[in-house]
Amino acid sequence: MKHANVAVFVPHLGCTHRCSFCSQKNITGQENIPSPQEAAEIFRNGIAALGRRAKTAQIAFYGGSFTAIPKELRIPLLEAAQPFLGERGYSGIRIATRPDAIGNEILSELKSYGVTAIELGAQSMDDDVLAANNRGHTADDTAAASRLIKKHGFSLGHHMMTGLYGSDPEKDIMTAEKLIALGPDTMRIHPALAVEGTELARLYREGLYKPQSLDEAVKLCAKLLQMFHKAKIDVIRAGLHDTQSLGQSVVAGPYHPAFRELCEGVIMLDAALGLLRDIPPGNISPAVHPSFVSRMAGQNKCNTRKLQEMGYNVKIKRDDTLSPFEIKLKGVY
Fold first, then answer.
1. Which residues make Cβ contacts (< 8 Å) with residue 31, sequence separation at least 6?
2. CB 186 within 8 A of CB 160
3. DSSP E strand boundaries for the chain
4. What is the 8-class DSSP label of residue 29?
5. Are 272 and 317 in contact (CB under 8 A)?
6. Mean pLDDT across 82-111
7. pLDDT of 185-205, one tens digit each?
8. Which of 189, 197, 190, 191 is nearest to 251 (CA)?
């Protein structure tokens, strides 16, 4: 990861709707809202743990809709962060919020307290899908909020979800295309999971909702990763952060603790197969960026085994001149 966040979770705080997929207690393992004093302790501990890396790290308020939190609760949390910003602390503050909770006044407030990045929970750019999942905002709200955030000079992030109730791969790809057109700096992709205590779990149990299979989600999100990479948008997470509470709470859906690694493994295997289309079986040495060696091998070396089954003996080489997802054949014997 190129970035680091020291996160304070404010579960459901400021949320005006209970979305079909959301149970912050089961997803994050946290139920209580921290006090400003508790938040300050988290920031202090983060600096001690990160050391010099703290200068490039950010404080992050996640788990709720930060700009919709009542001002009497929001301001003390922002004030608690102030002593930890600047030369001896973090580079800024990152917050997550809803598209319909953005306006000029709140953005000016956030700027004055050192907020540098705003992540919007877009989830889908299809209004029917948004309504079916009780989001309470429209795709136009996401577009308008995105433009306003960029106008005020913040780094813009988007969250999107695949496999939501009422969606399909075509709608998910359309969502990615529309979000790319809005020019975000960062992206998070989360395949929808039916988590205990959510509306999706109820719909699944009643036979009204069929989540993506793991294979379906991996193939689709691999394509999305490539789309965002081509658009030079940094995908800072693919799949939900793995926690014990999440693993124990998933009723159905494409949950995997190394979801991104699976997606990137699919991308690398497809790229390798493209290069090998006219090359007969034998010994090959594909070269990739050092950080992508494990992706080229695939999880539990599944890509290597697949190529071996096709008659190719693989020796992966490192090449730091290559970019992520790039692959070259350094030798065919």
1. 11, 24, 25
2. no
3. 5-9, 58-62, 92-97, 115-123, 155-162, 186-191, 194-195, 234-238, 250-252, 282-288, 312-314, 317-318, 327-332
4. S
5. no
6. 95
7. 999 999 999 999 999 999 999
8. 197
